[in-house]
Amino acid sequence: MIPIPKIWLITGASSGFGRSMAELLLKKGDIVVATLRTPEALSDLSAQYPPDKLLVVKLDVTKKADVTAAFAKAQEVFGRIDVVFNNAGQIVLGEVESLSEESARQLLEVNFWGAAHVSREAVRFFREVNKPIGGRLLQVSSRLGLVGGPASAYYSASKFALEGLSESLSKELDPAWNIKVTIIEPGPFRTKLVAENVQIEPQHPAYAHPSSPSSQFRKYATSSAVDGDADKAVAAIEKIVHIDNPPVRLPLHKKTVASAKEKALSILEDVDNYGAWSEDLYFN
Asked: Which of 8, 140, 217, 264 lies 20 to 30 angstroms, CA to CA, from 14?
């Protein structure tokens, strides 16, 4: 029996995981609604695939009207969306004292509010447009959405916020809607986003010593030591949509797996050591 192609809407399809996922799905025979701020970046793919396989839509996720219009276009052309790959984002490196408020707010505007706009519209679409109802929402977070790190505080904050939104959303959904949310937590993968599109803020002099944690991370983040293969990562992510009961979180990369274990143990240790402080804090 030939499987029925899934219809995917991908945000941030111009590069990184978005571009890699679009290429993988098209090769597999799925249908892709590729959204991005610069549609000409996918002109090579548009030349390879017909419009009934690849629909390219201009979208700035920070603009709610753009988000609504992109979903409406997908409905007009294909009638439904099976999977939303909520991937659009940016990386800004800089310490808390290094980043300007303007840069920090713009980062949150894209990574949190942009992703929130897409999440709201995805849930509405899965529930009210799809027949039968249901769908998969894949939220691209980061290892730094699970643990904080030097020279990335605001980026980490944007991903922590997305994880909180996504985990809460997953608990709000009526099971009858058949909507599944999975938070993807990639570690260091070599993508165009890191290699070319990362924004690096000037370093505050107080942190400029070469051996400081933030200096070391700045050096590592844009180096060839970043060993994750983005094409292999999206192949693993794609498997999630074929699982009936997918995990709430999917840690991807040995560094994310190690960080998750370390944080879980640290939390348990703190609970064991200080849990008793909560015993006598209630009205009699």
From this structure: 217
